[in-house]
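> run fold Acylglycerol kinase, mitochondrial
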Amino acid sequence: AVKVLTTLRNHWKKTTFGVCLLSWGGNWLYGKHCDDLLRRAACQEAQAFGNQLIPSSMPLKKATVFLNPAACKGKARNLFEKNAAPILHLSGLDVTVIKTDYEGQAKKLLELMEKTDLIIIAGGDGTVQEVLQELSDANVNLLSLCVQAAFSKIPIGFIPLGKTCTLSHTLYPESMNQVEHITNATLAILKGETVPLDVLQIKGEKEQPVFAVTGLRWGSYRDAGVKVSKYWYLGPLKTKAAHFFSTFKEWPQKHQAALMYLGPTERPPEEPEEKLSRPPLYVRLYRRLRLYWSPPSKEIPQEVTPEDWEELKLSTIELSIATRNRQLDLTRTEDFMDIWIEADTVSKGEFVNRGSQKMRDPHTCPEGSQHIQASRCILQLPEGTEGSFGIDNEEYEAMPVEVKLLPRKLQFFCDPRMREQMLHATVQ
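> ok
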């Protein structure tokens, strides 16, 4: 024992390195063991759903998964196959996986939409936005899709696998463990609780509309945040460095525009679902013959009341147009989106500090910002305006746009605990 201690003392550098290596290895193995326990518990819970008896005449529920393998720096596919796929298969779902890394997904999506009972998006914010956008790229407007009962009632599940997963803050409890977060999200799909989410339709003069479930950002904080990764060599200081160096270009940084908007709209009461039986054949034939021999007379168009648009000239360091999906209120009587206009009188020190906060929560706004509630708005930019919009963390060229709120158009699965919190919060 004395000889061993003497050897360790004489080679203290190697001893220290060995102890650190063993400690790290033990901690890594313990973490892997805990992850395996989480996966096993989740699979056992999913097995309970799969063991439920269903009538022989009832077909299996079909789930279409849109998986972005490039999310989370290329780790999304492995994360999905290890943590989410076993749960889905054990639950008794008929699962079809579509990878969103090749052209033509829109056509594939449309072929499957009529045959699927639920949609699952596995990725990050960009994947959610991409799936919505694929519909419009295939000349299928999301609004017209959602108006049809066959499509608007298809629930959507979200499995957070990307670097930024804004929706997960609304749908699932916070978790520092990635495996636990993914398994909880997948189990929430099986439990069947849903919440309605708003969608923003963002349309330029000639462009196809873009759809967002989070919102649009335009300004200096967004521009600086995009460049943070360029300063990776500065480690934890890279965020402050990106915002600090952006102040060298011009100061103060002002974004000027004209804004027209309409106020909130009253939320109509929810009507109970009614399944209308198809009329007999002789009734349908009679109706068609009556329409043929006595076509309906053309109605005189009624005068449309002019909409009460508000106009505003703005100069801001950042403009944000966001849905209320982050602060869901299930008992709200009005539908609106939030427009935040931040003051352009900001010191360089405040800009750097707020920039770090914006990286954690992009739609947070400081006190003194102008807040507008609107159901529709038109953003006019001066000629020659450069820069980019951030729409659900995806970059688009800045241009004049019309933003329209599509209230409660998508049904997303959520954790029952989160839905319970929303109901209690609204009651209080």
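Confidence is low (pLDDT under 50) at residues 138-150, 300-305.
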